[in-house]
């Protein structure tokens, strides 16, 4: 397949560009999710408590990672618009600045999270039976933040210029390696003693380190469409201000999602370890299924960004229209399949616990019908992000998660006979509200009007 770095994304078939961009992104995101799924699979063989310990760690880890992820998105948007404008010099400079800023941020976050691991796990309600394992997993995972952030930077910058296959190949290699290292470090082999929950985190850190070294090394060589340079890696406060103006709303949006997940975990823990494990399995299966929506969202961000940079606003809107249709109808179909096969899927992870299987399957069945709405919301976020309107995505997320999902989850689980099932129902309700608000704003055309007036143009 022809590499997209050799194609002009501001011309030609939108459908072809969208598919060629989204397919490798979807594959890469699916492979990255395999880290958690592989961990869950092997830890499930240790018991429900091991799965619950990692399930508690995941929302906090995601919350911390969201800051870096938002800033890498900002770098990607700036690079995409510079690429669309034909400004290779700015592509390279913006990439160098992104690597520089994210590197120092990742070191700071790694230090803070390592020393705050136990209070954070207690904050989300880790009981005595899982506190030790959850803290251990979290501490080891914090070591990998620098590696994880650096690969995120490489991946985002490559996506910004349309080179999406290379990151996918690297992710594939590291996931295959993790598939081997996970059981080795968890259970041991021969004279090599297994480390249980800690082993799962250590194996992930090793593979993340390898991917980061490969990715950043390629950026320095400059043979893949971007060349970063040490002389350009110094504080440029004007550029950093622009990056933060775009990235902070995106970071806050992802933080809002992670924060809502964390608060839901606090509610879930009040129902016991079995419900916590069911929630953890359901969320991981859900994260794998919604990856197509995220893939189309990221592809949409790149396409919209490059077309905005080329001042082709109408074409950018056509990208959004087509991507929204594909995500809505495609994920609605996947939701139906997931509804049908919910129990066999959950049984794959915890084969010997009927109660956990039952709870996880019910969670997935309740979520399934709203997957098309979730896809619509994610794609529209991709449009807004590509155009530089990351504030819109932030406001929609705050509305759906903090004004709808969490209050509904709290009220239904604590004030009705639904109990923990009330938590599950909060997902489709909030997905519906978020999709409707995003769609209405998109159709008003306000974001197009701002672009036509010359605002939100980046990469100049």
Automatic annotation (TrEMBL):
Q: Where are the transmembrane segments?
A: 12-31, 51-79, 99-117, 137-154, 166-189, 195-220, 258-279, 285-305, 326-350, 362-380, 392-412, 424-442
Give me the Gene Ontology terms describing cellular component. Answer: plasma membrane
Instruction: Identify the domain of life.
Output: Bacteria
Cross-referenced InterPro entries: MATE_fam (IPR002528), MATE_MdtK (IPR050222), MdtK-like (IPR048279)
Tell me how this protein sits in the membrane.
Answer: Multi-pass membrane protein
Q: Name one Pfam family in it.
A: MatE
The GO biological-process annotations, alphabetized, read as: monoatomic ion transport
Keyword annotations for this protein, in alphabetical order, are: Antiport, Cell membrane, Ion transport, Membrane, Transmembrane, Transmembrane helix, Transport
Cell compartment(s), UniProt: Cell membrane
Name this polypeptide is given: Multidrug-efflux transporter
């Amino acid at each position: 397949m022809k590499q997209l770095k050799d194609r002009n994304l501001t011309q030609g078939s939108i459908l072809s560009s969208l598919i060629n961009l989204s397919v490798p992104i979807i594959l890469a995101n699916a492979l990255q999710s395999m880290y958690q799924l592989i961990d869950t699979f092997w830890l499930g063989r240790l018991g429900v408590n091991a799965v619950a310990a990692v399930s508690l760690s995941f929302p906090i880890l995601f919350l911390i990672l969201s800051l870096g992820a938002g800033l890498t998105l900002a770098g990607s948007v700036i690079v995409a618009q510079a690429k669309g404008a034909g400004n290779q010099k700015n592509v390279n400079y913006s990439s160098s600045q992104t690597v520089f800023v994210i590197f120092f941020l990742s070191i700071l976050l790694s230090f803070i999270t390592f020393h705050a691991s136990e209070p954070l796990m207690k904050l989300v309600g880790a009981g005595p039976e899982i506190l030790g394992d959850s803290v251990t997993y979290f501490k080891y995972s914090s070591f990998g933040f620098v590696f994880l952030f650096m690969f995120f930077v490489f991946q985002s910058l490559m996506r910004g210029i349309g080179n999406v296959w290379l990151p996918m190949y690297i992710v594939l290699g590291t996931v295959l390696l993790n598939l081997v290292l996970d059981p080795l470090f968890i259970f041991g082999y021969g004279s090599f003693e297994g480390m249980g929950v800690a082993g799962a985190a250590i194996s992930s850190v090793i593979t993340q380190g390898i991917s980061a070294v490969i990715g950043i090394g390629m950026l320095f060589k400059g043979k893949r469409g971007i060349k970063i340079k040490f002389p350009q890696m110094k504080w440029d406060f004007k550029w950093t201000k622009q990056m933060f103006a775009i990235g902070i709303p995106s970071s806050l949006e992802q933080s809002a999602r992670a924060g809502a997940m964390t608060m839901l975990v606090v509610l879930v823990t009040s129902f016991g370890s079995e419900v916590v494990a069911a929630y953890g399995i359901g969320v991981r299966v859900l994260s794998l299924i919604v990856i197509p929506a995220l893939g189309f969202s990221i592809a949409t961000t790149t396409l919209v960004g490059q077309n905005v940079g080329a001042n082709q606003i109408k074409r950018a809107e056509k990208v959004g229209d087509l991507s929204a249709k594909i995500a809505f109808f495609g994920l609605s179909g996947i939701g139906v399949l997931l509804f049908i096969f919910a129990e066999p899927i959950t049984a794959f992870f915890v084969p010997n616990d009927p109660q956990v299987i039952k709870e996880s399957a019910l969670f997935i069945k309740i979520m399934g019908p709203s997957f098309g709405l979730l896809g619509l919301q994610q794609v529209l976020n991709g449009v807004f992000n590509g155009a530089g309107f990351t504030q819109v995505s932030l406001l929609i997320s705050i509305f759906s998660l903090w004004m709808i999902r969490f209050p509904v989850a709290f009220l239904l689980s604590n004030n009705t006979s639904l109990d923990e099932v009330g938590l599950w129902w909060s997902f489709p309700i909030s997905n519906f509200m978020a999709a409707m608000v995003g769609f209405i704003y998109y159709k008003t055309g306000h974001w197009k009007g701002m672009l036509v007036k010359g605002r939100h143009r980046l990469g100049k």
